[in-house]
Amino acid sequence: MNDKQFVEAIRDSPEGHGLDGTYYPTAMFLTGVDVGRSGGLLRGFTEWLVVRRGECSSFYWHKLVLLDLFPDMSLKGWKNPDHLTPEQHRQAVDHLFSLVLAFLDVRNDPRELSRMYTRYEAMYAHIWE
Asked: Which of 12, 53, 90, 110 is a good FRET partner for 124, with 20 to 30 A between their CA atoms?
């Protein structure tokens, strides 16, 4: 099973992976998988989201996914399950999986991955000088 198939399996059967359909536990589960793979699953995901958004950010991907879907959302208390409505949790989890799957297509294409990192470096060039 490749990474994309693995993520699709989690998406298609969250209960089978101990998930309840809420955003924070789902994000933490994917973080745990990533850590277990020495950062190999989601390496570059935060950078890809920043480039996709076209705006420098110090946020990690957990918050960037939420801001991508709900741009005006306050992130204060975002880990609290009551921060989102049940419908917002469903939307956020669906959005997370769609973004991860789109990212994996980029991550698995060396040319696209290189282009993404080049754009990322250019966005931050003025900050790092």
From this structure: 110
Query: Per-domain residue ranges for the chain?
Result: 3-128
| 3-class SS of residue 108 | coil
pLDDT tens per residue across span 55-75: 999 999 999 999 999 999 999
* Alpha-carbon torsion (71, 84, 37, 9), positive or negative: negative
108/55 Cα distance (integer angstroms): 24
The SS3 assignment for 50 reads helix
Residues 6+ apart with CB under 8 A from 87: none
pTM of the model: 0.93
Output DSSP code: residue 80: S
* Whole-Å CA distances, 90 to 11, 24, 87, 97: 11, 11, 5, 11
Helix (H) or strand (E) holding 4: helix 3-12
